[in-house]
């Protein structure tokens, strides 16, 4: 647990940079939304960049990590949740509190103001907390889509998965198609964890816990139907202290080339926090 208090003073000690590859073990669908359908096109296309290549929005990966950590830490009871949106049929509930040691608030940030709780009195947060964690959009590595894969894809770089919902009474089929990035595709991920005080050093372990939860859950849509299984590899952690930014000091590699288990072992080492110096 965090040792932050209301009196904790914030001053940048440095930034922990985590980079690596995200491998698709099964097809991945992160929807773009679409107002119209094209004849022969997928009902649910994947999000693409300006060059027409699929990518993983940083917000999608960040939101999944947050959601899984909230569940793992027991922060999804009605008394712990607030409404971001109460629009009928589109309600959005997330964990929020004003506790200074709340690691979800520290990692992902929080704003002051009044928020309606799902259960209980409204939350009157008085102080803002800067988000320590930044997760960037993850571009596709085009080389991961091999020539052999392209021969069997519906599009040059994506596949179309057809699904059917069957009415239990009439047996009428309701077909739908889902565009997916194929299994074997690889994305380049980059995350930055700001260390603003000594107490922040424990947040690195919480971040890696969230990423390991993603590996045994799903990313994007259709997870319960087989899509979205991913794995992180070639994980590298680099520490850049204040001197790196102020005077061009050197950076220090803390982990390189392994999986999340190796990175987690490095973070859990007793000497890890001592390496995050200013």
Structure write-up:
By secondary structure, this protein is an alpha+beta fold. It has one domain (14-275). Helix content is 21%, strand content 28%. It has 7 helices and 13 strands. The strands form 5 sheets. The chain has a 5-stranded antiparallel β-sheet. A two-stranded antiparallel ribbon has the order 2-8. A two-stranded antiparallel ribbon has the order 3-4.
Number of strands: 13
Overall spatial form: globular
Beta strand %: 25-35%
The largest sheet has its strands arranged as 7-11-1-12-13
Mean pLDDT metric: 92
List the helices and strands and how they pair.
Layout: E1 14-24, E2 55-56, H1 58-72, E3 81-85, E4 92-95, H2 103-108, E5 113-115, E6 123-125, E7 133-135, E8 138-139, H3 147-151, E9 159-166, E10 173-180, E11 186-195, H4 203-215, E12 230-241, H5 242-247, E13 252-258, H6 260-268, H7 272-275
Antiparallel strand pairs: 1-11, 1-12, 2-8, 3-4, 5-6, 7-11, 9-10, 12-13
Helix pairs in contact: 1-4, 4-6
What is the structure about, briefly put?
The chain is an alpha+beta fold. It has helices spanning 58-72, 103-108, 147-151, 203-215, 242-247, 260-268, 272-275, and strands spanning 14-24, 55-56, 81-85, 92-95, 113-115, 123-125, 133-135, 138-139, 159-166, 173-180, 186-195, 230-241, 252-258.
Task: Provide keyphrases for this structure.
about 280 residues; alpha+beta; 5-stranded antiparallel sheet; two-stranded antiparallel sheet; 7 helices
